């Protein structure tokens, strides 16, 4: 079964690294412009965010990161295996990269663009969120690809 062939140590590492990357991307590299555009008045946000709410957010995000890592690992294994059936090179890292970009676009753009369309956030927020997802999924690909 494909679920049993997943490297769960890689899932654990990529789940944690997704948090680290997210922190660096949104709270260090893009901190001031992103936080201002995403949240507005940070002083009001800090007053509303209790310690319990912050812990709950952290726990939920790490769980979602692990689920994302598992789902990506399954998709990558299916893509590799499909190479023989559908006559493409499933052992090519370059092909796997383009497959990853297609997955990233298909599964993240509706959410990142939704921030502009439905929440009326700035294009900067869309750009930062989308670029984070591209970097994150590339990181997932490289870790799952090379960690045997």
Structural class, judged by helices and strands?
Answer: mainly alpha
Q: List the helices and strands in order.
A: HHHHHH
Mean of pLDDT: 89
Number of helices: 6
- Whole-number total of structural domains: 1
State the share of residues found in helices, binned by percent: over 70%
How many strands in all? 0
Give Rg in angstroms.
Answer: 17 Å
Q: Biggest β-sheet, characterized?
A: none
Shape: globular
Q: Which parts are unreliable, with pLDDT below 50 for 5 consecutive residues or more?
A: none
For the terminal residues, how far apart are their CA atoms?
18 Å
**How large is the share of residues in beta strands?**
under 5%
If you had to describe this structure to a student in words, what would you say it looks like?
This protein is mostly helical. The protein has helices spanning 8-29, 31-39, 42-48, 51-86, 93-117, 123-146. The protein has one domain (2-146). This is DUF1761 domain-containing protein. The chain crosses the membrane at residues 6-31, 58-81, 93-111, 123-147.
